[in-house]
Amino acid sequence: MKFKSTLENYVFVLPAVTIFAIFYIIPFFWVFSYALHDWDGILPTMTFVGLGNFKEILVDKIWWQSMTNAGYITLVALTLQNAVAFLLAWACDREIRAKNFYRVLFFIPPVLSEVVVGLVWQWILDGNYGLLNHWLNGMGLHAWVRNWLSDPQTALSAVAIVHCWKGFGWGFLIFLAGLQTIPRELYEAARVDGANAWHTFKNVTIPLMIPVAVLVSILTILGTMQAFVLIIAMTGGGPAYHTDVPVLRILASMRGSSRFGYACAQGITFGVILMAISFIQYRFSKKAKA
Amino acid sequence: MSVRRLAGIFLSLLILSGCSSKLQEAKSTVTIWHWMTDREPAFRELASRYEAKTGVRVNFELYAPSDAYSQKIRSAAQGTNLPDIFGILGEKRDFSSFIKAGLIVDLTPYMEENNSVWKKSFFAKALAVNEFNPGNSYGIKPGIYGVPIDVMSIQLLYNKKLLKQLGFNKPPQNFQEFLSIGKNIKAANMQGMVSGWGEIWMIDCFANDYAFNIMGKDKVIATIKGKVPYTDPDWIKVLTLFKDMQESGVLASGLVTMINKNAEQLFANERAVFAFNGSWCVNVYKEMNPSLDYGVMLPPKVSDKYPASVWGGAGSSFMVNARSKNKEEAVKFLEWLTERDQQAYLSEATNNLPANKESVSKLPEVLASFSEGMEVATHPSVWGVSEFPAVIETLDKGIQSIIIGERTPEQVAADVQKIKERELAKRKYN
After folding, report:
1. Which pLDDT does position A197 carry in this prediction?
2. Range of lowest pLDDT (A152-161, A275-284, B215-224)
3. B76 and chain A: CB distance < 8 Å anywhere?
């Protein structure tokens, strides 16, 4: 009887497990297998190179530059994007007029297509006919006028800021949900005890928001490190390698150089790095919470 | 509803679906995957004409942009579910991999039937892109493996009105004259040359044009073979041209991240004096600004020692899937598609240069100028050797860094040579 019931349960989960295995688990192992080979993605034969692809990644300067670029964009997103998201969520959590309107407004950028956002911002930041330079000229700030996306000194920061603009809505939404779970009684109790707004914020809001902040940070890191559509639309990774990011390098290996094996090895390396960063951050946050 | 009734409905549906598939099988269908958005209506029109004539249905399926198309073809090749006819957007090395994988029909016997009438109908340069010669470095059996649909050449375009405004009644005759226009462009606060140099292959194309002019074809090929280093003074001279152009003001600002679509918009809207673009642009400019008055010229020569050269040859080509059940039908359709009348229609409807040399009689002026460039056209696909992708990328990205003033031509040449040596060593080791 027990065996029959167990079998029945297995039969019920079998379709889901099969689909999961076909589309996730098997390809995952294939990627590992390809990473150990030299293969152009077309030929029926491939050459086993062992860990050769991984060794090459270790000395691939362009790959590590792309990691640094992604790291810089992530740092800007972690600080600027999340700070803005938190402050706006905090403002919307208070009794302000038209707060529902702001909630909708702040969530518009994340739902827009990344390609469209990229192209619109490319137009705004264009050195010759861009809106930003037009405004700067109008305000008499001629020295600030430049080709924001082609200048190696500003290209990466410009991309990072647009990425923040596009992504802050997600953080805003999660922070707002987190703020709304804080019992109002705690604020009232703090006020009765004589706490001013700053003390309430520091001693009630911040400690209770740490788990939410950890979640937002992890999502920001994972989302930003993997960003590439916006970058393709805005700069294509240029000028030179100044806005190149790991996913663009993987694409370049796969499509530009026809090196499927190397691209798979890059994908695995990138995945491991992301997991390591998330794990370290989780451990740090746990310590901070304790 | 009773079980019997349900079973009845199911059975009827089964019979009906069986009948419909039989009906469909009566006529064969040739499926073509392509990426040419601008040619889609003309292709559909030709497909309906072919169906009316032969009863064979031709199904053109559009997958754009070209990047996405390329990816789709690769995935389909891995899954061995390519359509009857498809195109390969890549280097000759990729083309050879498809052939080695047994995915492409050798069309030589078809081309050489009836005293090679089909083969002879094409421009030799259009066919060369799809041809593998005896002793080719890819190890492919000599033959023709693709059918050119049109030809293209990439040249320099100039806006006649803007050039006149700058005080020039004719386009620059040599590179020095070209550079000297830069000063006037700067002074008039105009934009110089626009192009899709954010997509690196167009930089490669420009650099190769001048490499051919400065050192000749043999030395370029010798460099690819690893016999001449990229640090050779001639290569430094090629790289220095980009520095000179940047300093003279003849290049538009923001060129290094510019995609070709944006470059086309700038030139069509008369915001740039020059454009470096392919013959496909005639149709694009016509749609964007029908009154645009522009001329076409070969990039101005630096040296008279070697002839000028531009990239050109087959613009788009189709290949027949060797594993297709409709192989014969597919070849027949391509034969029909490249006949004089169909080629003339395609050329007229899409403003592209026809691959069939008998269809070039009625070309608009600008397109005729592009057609003249075919005489000096060359393409990496016909050189018999391919440069390593990593070397091409380092060269093109290096040129971007020269333009933005970050690296010197000598530094870039050294970087490229280093990668070249690494790749050569790897090939030797493998």
Report:
1. 86
2. A275-284
3. no
In this prediction, the residues of chain B whose per-residue pLDDT falls under 70 are: 1-27, 428-430
> Which chain A residues are Cβ-neighbours of B396 within 8 angstroms?
none
Q: Does B408 touch chain A (CB under 8 A)?
A: no
**Cβ B257–A152 below 8 Å, yes or no?**
no
Asked if B173 has any chain A CB less than 8 Å from its own CB, the reply is: no
Q: What is the pTM of this model?
A: 0.85
Residue B8: per-residue pLDDT: 61
CB contact under 8 Å between B101 and A43, yes or no, is yes
Residue numbers in A near B401 (CB within 8 A): 239-240
CATH architecture of the domain with residue range A54-289? Orthogonal Bundle (1.10)
Residues in chain B: 430
DSSP characters for A85-147?
A: HHHHHHHHHSS-TTHHHHHHHHTHHHHS-HHHHHHHHHHHH-TTT-HHHHHHHHTT-GGG---
**What CA–CA distance (Å, rounded) separates B83 from B66?**
17
* pLDDT of res. A125: 94
Any CB–CB contact under 8 A between B254 and chain A? yes
Q: Express each pLDDT in A13-28 by its tens digit.
A: 999 999 999 988 999 8
Alpha helices in B231-364 (DSSP H): 233-248, 260-268, 281-288, 327-337, 340-350
Q: Which fold has domain B153-312+385-429?
A: D-Maltodextrin-Binding Protein; domain 2 (3.40.190)
Which of A56, A120, A150, A241 to substitute to test the interface with B, most B CBs within 10 Å? A150
Among 3.40.50.920, 3.40.47.10, 3.40.190.10, 3.30.420.40, name the CATH number for the domain at B26-152+313-382: 3.40.190.10
- What is the model's pLDDT at position B7? 57
